[in-house]
Amino acid sequence: MRLTLALAILACTAAATASGQGVFGGRVADAHGAPVAGALVSFTHGDPPHTLTVYSGADGRYRTPATSGAGPWSLRVRRIGWKDLERTGLEPRTSGAALDLVLERERDPASVAGQLPANRWYALLLAKLDDPGQREELVRQCTYCHQQGNWATRMLRPDEQWEKVLSLMARMGAGLSPELRAQVPQLFTAAYDPKTAVAALTANMDSPEFAPPPASEVGSAAVEEWVLGGPASMQHDLAVHPDGSIYSVDMTQDKLFRLDPSVPGGKRESFDVPQGDLPLGGVFGGSGSPAPPNTNAHVGPHSLQVAPDGAIWITLALGNQLARFDPATRGWSIHPLDEGYYPHTLRFDAKGRVWYSVAASNHIGVYDPRDGSHRWIRLPAPTWGQEFSSRALPFFLWLGRNFDLSDTSGGEGMSAPVPYGVDVAPDGGIWFSQLNAHRIGRIDPETLEVEIVDTPFTAPRRLRFDGHGKLWIPGFSSGLLARFDPQTRKFETWEIPIEPRGSETPYALNVDRERDLVWICGTNSDTLLRFDPRTESFTVYPLPTRVTYTRELDFDREGRVWTSNSNMPAWQIEGQMPRVLRLDPSALPAAEARTAAAR
Length: 599
What we know:
Elements: H1 2-18, E1 25-29, E2 40-45, E3 50-55, E4 61-63, E5 73-78, E6 85-90, E7 101-102, H2 109-115, H3 118-126, H4 132-142, H5 159-171, H6 178-192, H7 194-202, E8 222-227, E9 235-240, E10 246-250, E11 255-260, E12 267-272, E13 301-306, E14 312-316, E15 321-326, E16 331-336, E17 343-348, E18 354-358, E19 363-368, E20 373-378, H8 384-391, H9 393-402, E21 419-424, E22 430-434, E23 439-443, E24 450-454, E25 464-465, E26 471-475, E27 480-485, E28 490-495, E29 509-512, E30 517-522, E31 527-532, E32 537-542, E33 554-555, E34 561-565, E35 579-584, H10 591-598
Parallel strand pairs: 1-7
Antiparallel strand pairs: 1-4, 2-3, 2-5, 3-8, 5-6, 8-35, 9-10, 10-11, 11-12, 13-14, 14-15, 15-16, 17-18, 18-19, 19-20, 21-22, 22-23, 23-24, 25-26, 26-27, 27-28, 29-30, 30-31, 31-32, 33-34, 34-35
Helix pairs in contact: 1-10, 2-7, 3-6
């Protein structure tokens, strides 16, 4: 068996040689020759950069799939508890000596603490809050747009700077209650003070349990990343087109990007989203605009989906519009909302209609491209106060455009329900989540009757149906994966296995229906997770770039997982650039086969 596997791998290598491609392979070890398992071995080339990452196995061996694209390539090897190893000027091999790598232990506790993902630091902050309600509010609101606990968010700030941060945060929809807001500066300072935090985080840094290697099946995976946009960009969501290209929306720069990953290094194109005569900040322009600094967002493309005819449909959150882009003609059509504010997530039903959440005003919209009809369904709010604020939103926006409300945009009001995720059930029913109301609901697509279901966990976010009619839901502030059966109305939940428990914020998920697997964002831990419902088991895939805030997930025909690193602001991301990434869980033979072939 080993000989057969080895010959198969050698045959692949020979084919790569014939096509002008090559591979990188070798062994990662320490200074004494002991293997370093679970190292992320990354090779980068091109401008803009394209990076390929693989994982070392239990014996320290690694191997890339066949590479393509012009060199030279640079190398970075990374493992928590070890110093990064970097090299430049490399070329893949078609034969000859392996590229063996020697790592040096990192003994400085502060440096080791700096290697840890954001969630490990965030757990220190959450431990400072005794009130479960305030802890949930902090998780839900303070990780809306970016990781919490990364290097930038744990910087110590004076109180006056905190006021600016909290006001900006509230204008962008993440307002805290007055009681919690008053505690934030002291909480963050106490939790993230290096004098105490480093010791708490690294007390067991010499233990094998401090940063264990990933599961053995992770060794068969490869991750590719393509830088897309610039430091002021935000690649909010992406979608895989049937032709194999990837479309991504840059929310802060009003652009639609197209990536062709079949071209070595990736071919990138960008298209300007029509802004019309809208001001900066769109319909929200004014002293209370949700637009962040360094933005060119007049329409704010937020989410996108591929229509049955291959066109790209986009929600323009700040422009309060839907947009259609024709990849063949590269032409645009714009469809304004007559009711509601902030179109958000969208999905297509079997009739080709666009169903979408309208986050700020508590609506679900439906647009039929066949006849141009547009309808909006106002969702019930949990309280009278939230109902009033949703209905009065047009008046508040008028005030913001005509009066200086900058001193009153601190977010000390009530929390809106925020319709968020949307998906279409196999029976045609439209299901949605209300993030801040901690519930889901169903709309009858014909009668538009609304049904509400409370969730036994907090902050349901971007939900998806599987092929069996079950609804899968990420509990954003509860750190849970949930499955809901619309027939029995029963929930099942599984805790996300990221340590420390409760520090993960799963933003979105998607179901690979062909393989019956659920993929979940490890938004605060630089990971992607796979859940197998048959065995009820998780597999955690570490990602190579620090501060990887993932959102929408999609799949290509080969079952590879695509998502974007859309941490906002992008300068917090390692390398200061957003990117899209693809995880191929079966890019390489099983770890045992790689080991046998290397002997």
